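User: Run a structure prediction on this.
Assistant: Running it now.
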Amino acid sequence: MNRTMFLISAALTAFVLVVIGGVASRLSVSEPVSEVPTEIVIESTPITVPAIDPTVEALIREREAAYQAALAEAQQRLAEANQRLSAAQQQLDEVTTEAQAAPAVAVPAAAPAAVQAPAAPPAPTYAVSPEQAQAIAQAAAGNATLMRAPELVSIQGAPAYEVIFDRGAIYVDTQTGAILANTIAEIAQSANPISEEQAIAAAVAYLGGGTVREVEREYEHGVDAYEVKFSDGSEVYVDAYTGQVVYAKVKNVYGDDGDEHEDEKEKDDHDD
């Protein structure tokens, strides 16, 4: 039994030795792997540059010199501008600092410029004022009541003050103060006013006929008068004390030219 085990062991040992020897011989005869070169060599072809024309080369150099000179001048101006800007900024900072340090002073707002209106023509001047004319008229009016302040009118082509009273009007010259007309004095000559019938008769006689539509008593041109209105549109003003026609608006249906028109007539007893 021991002999058998010894033979088996010897056989196994011999087999292992043979296998190891075969592997070792195989490794010894294998060729080494050569490394692949990684460097790539590029062959360059030389470039031949043609020669530059001397005239062109001189022109290029001249322009290059001019460009360099202009660039230097621009850089110098830029430096000077930066210096002036720095100086101005410094002055501004100083002024701002002084303004902040100084006390606040209220500055009055400038008044808007006045717009000059076009000069009006000078008003006419008179020797007698309206107040003086009123005093003169009141002295001549007696107990008559003043109705309104004096107003400028034209009497016989001359300026005058018209002073209206309850019983008539007085006209005072603007230069001399003389009384040009006084209807109150004329009314005083007749103690009582005329009636409406008498005024209608005077108006109808003035027009030479017509149909009376309405009669009113009012002041017209400073005179206490009856206003007699006719159906054709005519109007006749008759003095309430003297019975004379002082103003008339006559409506002519057909005039000399065949057209309808109005004629206004004013009778002033003081023009004579």
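The beta strands are 151-155, 158-165, 168-173, 179-182, 212-220, 223-230, 235-239, 245-252, 261-266.
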